[in-house]
Amino acid sequence: MISKRNLIFSLFLLTSIAFFSQSDRVEYLPSFDKNKIHYGFYLGVNQNDFKVSLKDVPTVPNANITVEPTAGFNVGLIADLRLHKNLSLRFEPGLMTNAKKIYFNHLALPKDSVRDVSSTYLHVPILLKFSTDRYKNIRPYLLAGVSYNYNFSSSEANQDDNFASQFRMKTSNFMYEVGVGIDIYLYFFKFSPSIRGIFALNNEIKYDNPANGTSQWTAPVNYMGTRGVFLTFAFE
Fold first, then answer.
1. Does residue 130 come out as left (phi exceeding 0), alpha (psi in the -120 to 50 range) or beta?
2. pTM to 2 decimals?
């Protein structure tokens, strides 16, 4: 499992190497940032888990839910529209995969107490990129924006629920994202590592069917939403 600390350290290391290698270097791609529109693609890794808040349910005393995330991958395309010399609007549609184990620690039976949640998302962010002035072949930046996630693995329409060992999530979800990165201008292209945080705006859980009675899995859940971190490598 990758950790957020390792992701942050990796970006810091890349940034430091880029900065200290700039002395007496020829400036590559000197007119790159004058283009009104440019395109690219990205690859990356992610670690997403769920933020869970619980409520008191008399029929489910001492509810306790924890989440164990694993590393996932993301890949996508980039379209960048220059609005100002230090500001651009970015559209970065792509695919994101990850998996999690959800532990219902208040349930004794193993078949009831663990749910495996593997998800594949269509991830569609719209971001504003705030860049500093270029220093030789590097240019730090900040990112902020919102995204729409379509969960292909949600099982929202499935009539079976946790009483039939089926954990369900909502198909359509909305997030906000913030991040920091650095543009590194190379001879043929621009390489841009960044680290980003992603946070759900809506409750993603699909509650169990009321006709089945009080659910020991979803009834205590007041909110369950994605929170995660991406390490992304863009090529433009």
1. beta
2. 0.84
- For domain 4-235, which CATH number applies: 2.40.160.20, 3.90.1150.10, 3.40.980.10, 2.60.120.560? 2.40.160.20
The domain segmentation of the chain, as residue ranges, is: 4-235
Output the CA–CA distances (angstroms, integers) from residue 8 to 4, 73, 154, 196, in the order listed.
6, 17, 30, 10
Distance separating alpha carbons of residues 46 and 119, to the nearest angstrom: 12
| Nearest 10 degrees: Cα torsion 48, 166, 53, 67 | -40
Residues 111-169 pLDDT 10s: 889 999 989 999 999 999 999 999 889 999 999 999 999 999 998 989 999 999 999 99
CA dihedral for 21, 22, 23, 27, sign (positive or negative): positive
**How far is Cα 147 from Cα 127, in angstroms, rounded to an integer?**
8
C-alpha closest to that of 18 among 122, 115, 134: 134
Are 86 and 132 within 8 A, CB to CB?
Answer: yes
